[in-house]
Design goal:
The chain is an alpha+beta fold. The chain contains 17 helices and 31 strands. The termini are far apart.
């Protein structure tokens, strides 16, 4: 075929879009240069008598407030000078710097008026940046002022950390002048929370009295509405009688009526305050249905007895971030069914958790049973892990509880490199789940439903037994407590710490137990003396600054206690609710 008769070649060229990033940056810079040079400005903003020449187009592009002003039939759209009310001139200057440069300068003394200006002008970035800045600067000296500001503008991101700090330091704050400046709604908001760190409810009443007396004439009529937030169910009859006789109550007839109605009706849903709870490690007596609640640092030891049918047998125990205690237990007379029991702090009893059964024992290929089981909470979700140790390479099956469907859902399984006979631990740390054996460490990310292998132990030949998390670190030790190892989850590194400081002729008779109490690492040892054969319970607390374990020299009852999964559950316990107390050990 002649060349002229050939069909023209069609190239498969696809269109593409290009974006000049340098143009985007230079455009904003050019707009800023026009503003500095005073070129093409077509409107003047007047704030507190100060004049700011600007460009309508730039203001409209940056702010929906100005866009509505300049593109509607409002009078300002035709005016050469626009007067803005409710703005500080200096703050307006800072806002214009942001609009023309994208740079925002925030300081603690300017952040609140900056937020107010951004809220008026509908500048979302400025508003969000100011909120974040306030939340990062919540301290003793700023929290009450920031709380009042956040309350007015409904800024939960700021209000929440402020309330947390006020609750933790309520006794101190209740004597400050800033406390007396709270509105009645702010006061009741603060004292209505469970998280208030007070040892006695009379502390809340005394703070209310000081608040009312600070401006008696203006505040006395608020007392009846405030009293409904006092938890009279936590007061003794003598305390209540004393409040009824208080001059403020007698002067306001409505207050006495409120108190009598509240006391008469009662309200079991009003829980004890956080400060009324005591952190306690929990041990179980191996020979009887008895629990020992202990806090060695405070010298508190309480033994509680239960009927055999009231204390479920345990497979594992976990304490959640909201202070719920769960026991994973096999149903009586059953080798298959796994159930969860929940501790009732108010009644000091173990109740069915009202969750669906964890399901029957998971079976793998060839009907191989899962021998080791764990229950752990991560990010408010309960996870059940079952470990098969009969195969050549261990396998970890995992399920999580879906509270909306009341079902246990399968998660990604974990294939171990080694057969995991011996110690295994599952624990929560830094919003992730960690699974630890004597030879390997794995991390599970709930958001990705994915496992990641982490660094191995410093000495993988050492059999480690207990493990516990504190902050962003995981601590573990060996059977004889010769050395302790700590894993930093952020750097993926192990470090070796000291072990038993001076065992002498004493030896460990069983696996030691690690637990965290009062933000300090503790270890509980069952030991015996080679010389006289005497057995005893020992508790040490670790001093990180000196890398030394200090003997607390405690005296526990001479009973065969055991712990769950090589660690003591630690929970906040309201001691007055402990019924059936048998013995106080001092």
């Amino acid at each position: 075929m002649a060349a002229a008769d050939q069909e023209p070649h069609v190239s498969a060229v696809r269109p593409r879009s290009y974006q000049d990033e340098s143009y985007l940056h230079s455009f904003l810079g050019s707009v800023g240069d026009l503003q500095k040079a005073g070129v093409l400005q077509d409107v003047v903003l007047e704030v507190e008598g100060r004049r700011f020449p600007c460009h309508r187009l730039v203001l409209s592009a940056a702010s929906p407030y100005f866009r509505a002003m300049f593109t509607s039939d409002m009078a300002e759209s035709r005016q050469k000078t626009v007067v803005l009310q409710g703005l500080d001139a200096g703050i307006c200057g800072e806002i214009l710097i942001y609009i023309y440069s994208g740079t925002l300068h925030v300081t603690l003394d300017k952040v609140q008026p900056l937020y107010q200006a951004a809220d008026l002008l509908q500048l979302a970035y400025v508003r969000d940046t100011c909120s974040s800045y306030m939340a990062m600067n919540v301290e003793h000296s700023t929290c009450v002022d920031l709380y009042k500001f956040a309350d007015v503008f409904s800024l939960d991101v700021v209000r929440k950390p402020c309330l947390q700090l006020i609750h933790r330091n309520f006794v101190e704050f209740s004597f400050n002048e800033e406390f007396y400046s709270l509105s009645v709604n702010q006061l009741t908001d603060i004292i209505s929370h469970d998280e208030l760190d007070v040892k006695e409810e009379t502390t809340v009443w005394e703070a209310v009295v000081r608040w009312v007396q600070h401006s008696r004439e203006d505040r006395l009529h608020h007392l009846p509405s405030i009293l409904s937030h006092i938890r009279f169910n936590l007061l003794t009859s003598d305390d209540t009688a004393a409040i009824l006789e208080h001059p403020l109550v007698r002067e306001n007839p409505g207050s006495s009526e409120v108190i009598r109605n509240v006391v008469q009706k009662g309200n079991p849903n009003l829980k004890p305050r956080l400060g009324m709870f005591t952190e306690m490690a929990i041990l179980s007596n191996a020979e009887s249905k008895e629990l020992l609640f202990m806090n060695p640092l405070e010298g508190k030891y309480l033994s509680c007895s239960y009927r055999p049918e009231d204390l479920p047998g345990d497979t594992d125990v976990t304490v959640t971030s909201d202070n719920n205690i769960y026991i994973l237990s096999r149903e009586r007379n059953s080798n298959d069914e796994l159930s969860l029991f929940k501790y009732s702090h108010a009644e000091n009893v173990w109740e069915d958790s009202d969750m669906s059964s964890v399901s029957k024992s998971l079976r793998l290929e060839n009907d191989i049973l899962c021998y080791y089981e764990h229950l752990v909470e991560v990010g408010g979700i309960l996870y059940y892990l079952a470990i098969n140790v009969d195969s050549r390479r261990g396998l970890v099956w995992m399920r999580k509880y879906n509270m909306h469907t009341d079902q246990w859902q399968e998660c990604s399984p974990l294939q171990l490199d080694y057969n995991s006979y011996g110690f295994t631990a599952a624990l929560s740390c830094s919003s992730l789940l960690y699974f630890l054996t004597s030879k390997e460490l794995h991390c599970y990310d709930p958001s990705q439903d994915c496992w990641y292998k982490r660094s191995r132990l410093l000495e993988p030949t050492v059999d480690i037994y207990p493990a516990v998390s504190m902050g962003t670190e995981i601590f573990c030790t060996d059977f004889d407590f010769t050395q302790t190892m700590v894993y930093d989850t952020e750097s993926d590194c192990w470090q070796r710490l000291q072990g038993w400081p001076d065992p002498g002729s004493r030896k460990s008779s069983r696996c030691p137990c690690l637990f965290v109490l009062g933000e300090q690492l503790h270890i509980l040892l069952d030991s015996y003396n080679d010389e006289d054969g005497k057995e005893e319970h020992l508790i040490y607390v670790y001093d990180r600054s000196t890398d030394v374990w200090r003997d607390l020299n405690v005296t526990l009852p001479d009973k065969p206690y055991f712990w769950y999964g090589h660690q003591c559950p630690v929970a906040r316990i309201y001691l007055p609710n402990l019924k059936g107390i048998k013995k106080h050990v001092t």
